[in-house]
Amino acid sequence: MTGYNRQKAMVVGITGASGSIYGVKLVRTLLEIGYDVHLVISNAGWRVIKEELGWNVADRARLIEEQFGGYTGACIYHPINDIGASIASGSYLVEGMIIMPCSMGTLSAIANGASDNLLARAADVMMKEARPLVLVPRETPLHAIHLENMLKLARLGVRMIPAMPAFYFGPTSIDDLVAFLVGKVLDNLRIEHALFTRWGDHNEQAGE
């Protein structure tokens, strides 16, 4: 299918910030609800995946199939240096892009228009085509340059959703906290999900 009849699709980036589990959960959730996911992982992102999740990243194509195959949607992996990939062009239609987690280095590259790899280029495409771009920064503490770059992008319409999980819904596991943050990202893009109990629903259930 071509043009505006294309299967719903989203670009997802995973960088070298701590929290690769967030990006993995996001990709799986989008695939499960029927999105095709164009996945880009930075070199540092692969290293963090190996260290935090214990995955064998030597055979990346095989790993992508093992971890993200068999869902309703398809996962299309693009190497970080493939600057000629489909998602590097504004003529290729996707609904938006999410970078989760987003390192300060990637955030800086986007804020300053340094499209020297596919991840930064795809983000630049989202901005120039006025498509949704969501960044999930994961760093602490934040210094003035970090904050200035976030403010610069926010003023351009980029959505900032820092990796700040909530506790009002009574999480009992790390998975609950991860699902909450992924759900907040999907909420921001108006994508339906059932990843966490909402505040109003939480109160109603408590009163039953």
Summarize the structure.
With 208 residues, the protein is of the alpha/beta class.
Structure description:
This protein is of the alpha/beta class and 208 residues long. The protein has one domain (3-206): Rossmann fold, CATH 3.40.50.1950. It has eight helices and six strands; from the N terminus they run E-H-E-H-H-E-E-H-H-E-H-E-H-H. Strands 3-2-1-4-5-6 form a six-stranded parallel beta sheet, sandwiched between helices. Helix 1 links the parallel strand 1 and strand 2 (36-41). Helix 4 (104-111) packs across helix 6. The protein is globular and about 45 Å long. It starts with 8 loop residues before the first strand and ends with a helix. FMN binds at residues 16-18, 42, 103-106, 138.
**In sequence order, what are the helices and strands, one letter per element?**
EHEHHEEHHEHEHH
Distance between the termini: 48 Å
How many separate domains? Answer: 1
Quaternary organisation: single chain
Uncertain residue ranges: none
Overall pLDDT score: 93
Molecular shape: globular
Q: What is the CATH superfamily label?
A: Flavin prenyltransferase-like
Binding site for FMN: 16-18, 42, 103-106, 138
Family: Belongs to the UbiX/PAD1 family.
Catalytic activity: dimethylallyl phosphate + FMNH2 = prenylated FMNH2 + phosphate
Organism: Paenibacillus aceti
